[in-house]
Amino acid sequence: MKHLVIFVALAFSTHTLADTIIVQSTTSTQNSGLYDYLLPLLKKDTGVQVNIVAVGTGQAIKNAMRCDGDVLLVHARSDEEKFVADGYGEYRRDLMYNDFVIIGPKADPANVAGAGDVIEALRRIRQAGARFASRGDDSGTHKKERSLWQAAAIDPDAGSGQWYLETGSGMGATLNTGVSLGAYVLSDRATWISFANKQDSTILFEGKPALFNQYGIIPVNADKCPNVNREAANTFTQWLLSETGQAAIAAYQVEGKQLFFRTPARLHSTIELK
Amino acid sequence: MNALAEAFRLIITLDPDLFEILWLSIRVSLIALVIAAVIGLPLGTWLAITRFPGRKFCILLLNALMGMPPVVVGLIVYLLLSRSGPLGWLGLLYTPSAMIIAQVVLITPIIAALSNQVIENLHQEYSDTFYSMGITGRRAVVAYLVDARYALTTCILAGFGRAIAEVGAVIIVGGNIDHVTRVMTTAIALETSKGNLTLALALGTVLLTLSLLVNALVIGVREYAAERQYA
Predict the structure, then answer these.
(1) Does residue B6 sit within a domain?
(2) Which parts of the chain span the membrane according to its record (chain B) (predicted)?
(3) CB of A242 less than 8 A from some CB of B
(4) Rounded Cα–Cα distance for residues B109 and B41 (Å)
(5) Which of A170, A192, A211 corresponds to the end of one domain?
(6) Could you list the residue range(s) of the whole structural domain that residue B65 is in?
(7) ipTM of this predicted complex?
(8) pLDDT for A222-253, tens place per residue?
(9) CATH number for position B65
(10) Segment B2-40, tens digit of pLDDT
(11) Residues 6+ away with beta carbon under 8 Å from B87
């Protein structure tokens, strides 16, 4: 019995500290190593300890709505705005951006690389009968991909399980699937660059405005969720938006490539008018 | 082969991150195991030696619960411990304690159902003796547990195996937070999703080695004790 008491005491010894917050986050920022680089800098400057729960954007938003986080860091603009409008978030700010890219086998059977725009790229994939691996998990990337199919007037669900493969998994797992099958995949650039199992796949289509990928940051509303550590959540948010934080984001590189770009200052003022 | 070399390198260089994760895995699963054994062993035993209407159904339920998918357990515990859930005020979500709770829910039925089987066999042999000696109720449960202690180690090892190898529940309720709730299995899932397949496999090798050591240790102790007893 004494041992049991000791065991249980050990188990409960990991209590939360006053300056600890939980961030419900999209996966790309974790998988790319951005947090491993940023959080020690933040800790040194502010003393705030940040615990990252990295899930898809859809799940992160739902978790935050259940008050299971102090800050939300995701990439699905309209859902983020709805989150704030519904009273779950204090405010939303553009944090940083990068872009989506279309990954596929180097042989490029659908000749996606020669497409003029992303709509044409998707149409070529469909016409060539090539396979496409989708996140299928309501994440920010998945939402983006769905909107692009819609813009291309293609209903991928009709080919679900045939050419359209919904993995229902994170970006990395979907890339593993796509790379193994020689399928096309829509990925955020950061996850792809830091992804270590590229095999025969490469970036085939990129650099179009339609593939813009904006990350937003939202402190969870402490009036709605009394457990929220408002002060630390704000410190974290403001540090990331400060000159120091923005410069740190811009300085982060993997294999000599910058993964995330600071939000231009002129955009800050316009976007804040929510 | 690369994975084996990587596993070896991680171990001999005493990689601090690895040992932190490994220690948390062991700590969480051992605590869960102790709690599950304290509940499961007497429960399984009691169900084996008492008779009441609905007992068969209880045993059936325990056996069915053995096949409970970890991700479902994770989801249920998550909803309970979520800040907006009934136990949210405890503030346990995304802590090792949440992971322990999920694993207790997961492995208690395993330990109870397997021990129930062991004791039921023993009960057919001993029931008359115990009855004539006037050993009933709680004393009988203890007597059976002591008597069957060697056979029961297998039940306990099965529970431990399930706990230490499980990822679906702990990743939901723990959140796989670095230095807080990252354990071996969630680290393997993360490295796989980063495409670091060699490192993921190396971590898997380390976990397998741990499991091997634990099993060897327990079985070794059991053999040694059994030998001494009959010598």
Answers:
(1) no
(2) 24-48, 60-81, 93-114, 155-177, 197-221
(3) no
(4) 10
(5) A211
(6) 16-196
(7) 0.83
(8) 999 999 999 999 999 999 999 999 999 999 99
(9) 1.10.3720.10
(10) 888 888 888 888 888 899 999 999 999 999 999 999 999
(11) B80, B81
